[in-house]
Amino acid sequence: MLTVDNINLHYGAAQALRGVSINAEMGKITCVLGRNGVGKSSLLRAITGQHPVSAGTIAFDGTKLDGMAPFNRARTGIGYVPQGREIFPLLTVKENLETGYAPLARKDRFIPDDIFSLFPVLQSMLGRRGGDLSGGQQQQLAIGRAMVTRPKILVLDEPTEGIQPSIIKDIGRAIRYLRDTTGMAILLVEQYLDFCRELADQVYIMDRGEIVHQGTAETLDTPEARRHLTV
Ligand SMILES: Nc1ncnc2c1ncn2[C@@H]1O[C@H](COP(=O)(O)OP(=O)(O)OP(=O)(O)O)[C@@H](O)[C@H]1O
């Protein structure tokens, strides 16, 4: 389980996270919802080690992550699908997937078949450059690349952003498949309410750097929850 306990995060003098605590359990999809700029990406940057926290602790699988470099967090089993996907545009699809080998022991350096069962388009485009793929295909590639690292928790930053509905469905199916077959934890930040409502086992809502609501997916339909999500 991932445990985020009472963290603060600053950009210079500006505080982006205030006493944020969340848990993401193994075999569950945990969704953090919130409007633009409330601190969702900052929370994921704190978890993946892209930005230091100024207070609080983060632990995964019994290991405290405080002060640990991002590549070592990847070794403990944290797979990250960043906002905007961050595909290498001049590398081929295959080479992009192979960048996921970095935290792996030599014997594990292969591309698991289930990536291609989930996203057949990646197999048919293995030799194409990442930059030539559509936004949706790049999102599938970013998830595939994170899967190559054999994560125990997959952390996704707005995977539906700018993506057409048919591919959003494929991504939802893939996330469910990963939860059900591997038992990994999935932590998803999103603005897209319906996507979270359909997938999530547990939801949190953030507003202005704080967690303001916590519950099951059904609780998203309460007026209290809606108030934090409407612009
Ligand atoms: N590198 C940075 N330097 C200074 N301020 C930042 C930086 N990154 C984010 N912020 C600010 O921190 C706050 C939280 O931003 P964050 O990106 O975490 O929000 P978000 O909920 O992920 O929003 P979005 O959905 O737009 O990505 C915002 O006010 C943002 O302007």
Automatic annotation (TrEMBL):
Gene3D superfamilies documented for this protein: P-loop containing nucleotide triphosphate hydrolases (3.40.50.300)
Occurrences of domain ABC transporter (ranges): 2-231
Pfam families from the UniProt entry: ABC_tran
Keyword Transmembrane: no
Membrane-traversing stretches: none
Superkingdom in the source lineage: Bacteria
PROSITE patterns: ABC_TRANSPORTER_2
Annotated keywords: Amino-acid transport, ATP-binding, Nucleotide-binding, Transport
GO terms for biological process, alphabetical: L-amino acid transport
Single GO molecular function: branched-chain amino acid transmembrane transporter activity
InterPro entries assigned: AAA+_ATPase, ABC_transporter-like_ATP-bd, ABC_transptr_urea_ATP-bd_UrtE, BCAA_Transport_ATP-bd_LivF, P-loop_NTPase
Family: Belongs to the ABC transporter superfamily.
Protein name as it appears in the record: Urea ABC transporter ATP-binding subunit UrtE
The organism of origin for this protein: Ciceribacter ferrooxidans
Lineage: Bacteria, Pseudomonadati, Pseudomonadota, Alphaproteobacteria, Hyphomicrobiales
